[in-house]
Amino acid sequence: VDDSTKSSKWHSLKLQEVYESNHNSKDHILIYSGYILIGILVTVIVIFIICKRRRKENKGDSRLSSNRIVAVSDDGLNNKFSTVSLSSEYKTSKPEFSMISNDSGGLSSSLITTSVVNGLKFEDLLKAPAELIGKGNHGSLYKVMFDYGMVFAVKRFKDWGISTDEFMKRMWKIDRVKHPNVLPPLAFYSSDHEKLLVYEFQPNGSLFNLLHESSHNNKPLPWINRLEIASRTAKALAHMHKALEQDEIPHGNLKSSNILINGNMEPCISEYGLMQIQSHKTANNSFKSDVYGFGLILLELLTGKLVIDEKGICLADWVKTVLREEWTAEVLDRSLMAEAASEERMVNLLVVGVKCVENSPNARPNMNQVVDMIDSIKEDEDESNSIISVH
Ligand SMILES: Nc1ncnc2c1ncn2[C@@H]1O[C@H](COP(=O)(O)OP(=O)(O)OP(=O)(O)O)[C@@H](O)[C@H]1O
């Protein structure tokens, strides 16, 4: 009995052991399956997050693809007319810019899109050969060329005391206002130290080149073209003033080198709104400064002389003096006098110019009044031309 009891006890112990070992391995399987499930779950979450991020980045990229942005390093640029690649300039020093601006708080605030330049990327601009074509008072201008024929003018501003935020807001406001005779920026970039603006390159150069650089064009600009340029520029400026009056954004730097000439000999106002107004009080005076600038352009158009000549004589003062002394014909560009056009209408336009360059801003007309005055000269011109053509 004892033996059989022992053996049955032994059996039940064995069974228990087997049962327990089975039970343990089941537990293990369960535990491992749990781990695997958690692992899968974590992997799925990680993949989901990565995909979401990629999608976001792609969105940013497609926004960028319609931008043109140029990065130029601070050093490595010299005064000489030179052909460089912006990317090589860029590599000469630690890059100051990246596609994502460090100081402007994000991509969208550092880049501006425009539909005109779809498909072109930042890298393309960096790689393209660039030519320094001028150094103005407020920065340098580069001509950037692409294999497939597209050419851009990139203006690089130095020391423009405007914050990135303000700059971006201003650019958006200007971008909203369109006029066929105002050159819109195609893209722009801003960091605390530097602002870049990209424009379409105008192969015919500026009104300044046309009037004052004999090598530019040997044929003098005919009166009818000068009148047309004056009229279109006045209308474009009046349009911009009206649309941006509330925002207090005048052109701020209107001069003949900022009037570009397109293939049809039409003027295009460039670099609108790139100067900062000191205060609200001066805003109105700044609009009247544009009127002054426009007046000087009229005087340049009619006299063919520089705003300040080699002897330091100021064109506005000179014209005023000559008109006071009634030597009117002396003032006009000789090539205009050689034309069979009406001297009277030329003098009328000159008078509009003189009104615009009055010393006191309040004495100057606004751009709408200027447009009306020029329109009436144009009407006279058209009328007389139609009479001539009938005869
Ligand atoms: N989009 C453009 N296409 C072709 N030429 C241009 C373009 N923009 C400017 N230019 C020309 O490049 C030259 C340099 O221009 P830039 O604007 O740097 O100088 P600026 O107008 O003389 O001075 P500022 O810095 O006061 O504007 C000028 O002769 C100008 O007419």
Automatic annotation (TrEMBL):
It comes from the Eukaryota. The keyword Nucleotide-binding applies. Keywords: ATP-binding, Kinase, Membrane, Nucleotide-binding, Receptor, Signal, Transferase, Transmembrane, Transmembrane helix. Gene3D superfamilies: Phosphorylase Kinase, domain 1, Transferase(Phosphotransferase) domain 1. It holds the Pfam family PK_Tyr_Ser-Thr. Residues 127-391 form the Protein kinase domain. This is Probable inactive receptor kinase At2g26730. It comes from Cucumis melo. The lineage of its organism: Eukaryota, Viridiplantae, Streptophyta, Embryophyta, Tracheophyta.
